[in-house]
Amino acid sequence: MTRVSEVESLRKWFSYNARVRNGYFETLAKLSPEELSRDRGASFPTLLDILGHTLSGLSMWINRMSKLHNTFVSSYNPPETLSLTDLRRFSEEAEKEVDDFFSHLTEDDLDQTYFVPKLPPWWDEDYTASVRGTLYHLVEHELQHRGELNALLWQINVDPPILDWPFMELSTHNPDQSR
After folding, report:
1. What is the spatial distance between Cα 166 and Cα 54, in angstroms, rounded to a whole number?
2. Quick one: which of 45, 127, 58, 137 has its CA closest to 90?
3. d(CA 59, CA 74)
4. How far is 107 from 40, CA to CA, in rounded Å?
5. Helices 6-29 & 84-104, crossing angle to 10 degrees?
6. Cα 10 from Cα 6, distance rounded (Å)
7. How far, in Å, CA of 98 to CA of 82, rounded?
């Protein structure tokens, strides 16, 4: 069995998250505009806001780390209030950023650190972050908010687009296999 590098393992997680995120776009597209814009009292008011927050975090952190190698930095600036169409476009742009970032990432880069200036209300002090820690945070961040979306969708009797990792790997090797 071939051993997968840590960079390749992380790349798979980001690919998995992007693939599952597309399932949320399909699910949310079936909901009425009222359901999409209803304040649910969650971490962010609406289903669209939660997904937008996840994408904003992904884009922001990938762009910060991309500056380590002077690589691609997105010029995409999403509107403040995001429609489902805007979020799909934002996701496509974020996926380009992630792909470009990973195309330059090496195992040694995981140990690099970079300066993060304070950004109230999220954090009140400057600090130094590691590339490795940030990448794992981004995986966890998306999973956390996906769980939140799942719970909110279940509350309105909508099945979330759950794609278990083994089924994702099966369908990657055999496109006819799906869950």
Report:
1. 24
2. 58
3. 8
4. 41
5. 170
6. 6
7. 21
DSSP reduced 3-state for 129: strand
Task: From first to last of the 179 residues of the chain, give the pLDDT tens digit.
Answer: 678 899 999 999 999 999 999 999 999 999 999 999 999 999 999 999 999 999 999 999 998 898 877 665 566 666 677 899 999 999 999 999 999 999 999 999 999 998 888 878 778 898 999 999 999 999 999 999 999 999 999 999 999 997 777 766 666 555 444 44
pTM (2 decimals)? 0.86
Structural contact between residues 83 and 118, judged by C-beta atoms closer than 8 angstroms:
no
Task: For the chain, list the domains and their CATH numbers.
Answer: 6-173 (1.20.120.450)
